[in-house]
């Protein structure tokens, strides 16, 4: 069963993915404005820790390196300080 889930390439609709991207952009700008901080990236340890969690997750599509819940390419999403796992794992 895990192999079937692993190979399943279903992601949120394009509309949902665009909504996720818009929400991320708003959170990024809000965070920068409120904190008055332009440090938008996490450190290497945090980035690698997040990726490690993703690699163990049943929602992670390894072939595309994407999350099946949000549709994001995780190698990019894990870099940003305001990014959150849609399943609250990090």
Please provide the ordered H/E string of secondary-structure elements: HHHEEH
**Strand count, sense and closure of the main sheet?**
2 strands, antiparallel
| Strands side by side in the biggest sheet | 1-2
How would you name the oligomeric state of the polypeptide chains in this document? single chain
- Rg to the nearest angstrom? 14 Å
> What structural category do the secondary elements indicate?
mainly alpha
Helix content: 40-55%
* CA(first)-CA(last) distance: 25 Å
Our count of helices gives 4
| Uncertain spans | none
Outline, from the CA principal axes?
flat
Total number of β-strand segments?
2
Mean pLDDT: 87
Keywords:
single chain, 90 residues, mainly alpha, two-stranded antiparallel sheet, 2 strands, 4% strand
Topology:
Blueprint: H1 2-7, H2 14-35, H3 44-55, E1 60-61, E2 66-67, H4 74-77
Antiparallel strand pairs: 1-2
Structural account:
It is a single chain. With 90 residues, this protein is mainly alpha-helical. It is 49% helix and 4% strand. It has four helices and two strands, in the order αααββα. Strands 1-2 form a two-stranded antiparallel ribbon. β1 (60-61) and β2 (66-67) form a beta hairpin. It is flat. The two termini are 25 Å apart. The model has no long low-confidence stretch (mean pLDDT 87).
